[in-house]
Amino acid sequence: MTLEAPQIDSVNLVTRIAGLLPELRPAERRVAEAVIANPAEVARESITTLAERCHTSAPTVVRFAKRLGFAGYPQLRLTLAKDAGREEGRHAGEPLSGTLDASDTLDEVVAKLAYAESRALEDTAAMLDRSALASTVEAIAAAPRIDLLGVGASAVPAIDLGQKLLRLGLAAAHHTDRHAAMTSVSLRGEGDVVIAVSHSGSTTDVIAPAELAREHGATTVAVTNHPESRLAKACDVALVTASRETTFRSGAMASRIAQLLIVDCVFVGVALRDMEATQQALDASFRAVADL
Fold this sequence. Notes:
alpha/beta, Arc Repressor Mutant, subunit A, Rossmann fold, 2 domains, five-stranded parallel beta sheet, 5 strands, elongated
């Protein structure tokens, strides 16, 4: 299934740019990073000033704007200015960045992390492809077997979804080890589902089993922050999160929260297909551990 790109005005532009970072050339990436770091400042800069600050050329800035779907740099500046205005209005008195600094107080740390994580949830909900979500739910509901793949921080949502699907009586298993994942997906085929979670979309320990599963005919789903990543392209369906990397990897924290939103949407979507069966399964699993 092809993931449809969101409309320019439907999702915060900075979030979209962050999702494209791994696919940009070095010069365009410097422009993107300048936009992400301070979109309001870029909105006030001329194309020459921005190009000089990013150690690149004006044509590169124009190419970057066109890659985002704009006619040119003026249209990019206008959208950045509008986004910055909306941010200031929505989050008056709150930090407009999740970037942490060694001089931050604990109050500032709490405020910045809350901001980064709440924005990740809001932006992910806004850009989540509903048709891709529906396809994932349908495939899982009909699957004889479901495998969840994730390593490092991305293992958390994979394990969480695996446990939730087990409580519905579905044959689900999660794998945080590449060898175990490769062994399991080598036995999958048509009708089975393999869900691979990777914020960057470039984790080979997740990509390799996802590619093998697809070769064997299983339906493959990517959960990633980067819609043009190798993982997204290797899978049949992509469910895209929206979070920004920041200092001290608070972006990794926000990405985990965004991934958990995705897997919760998948779980609830499956559960709602047959509420009577869902309630019976949940009641049975609850009784089984009630006295432990």
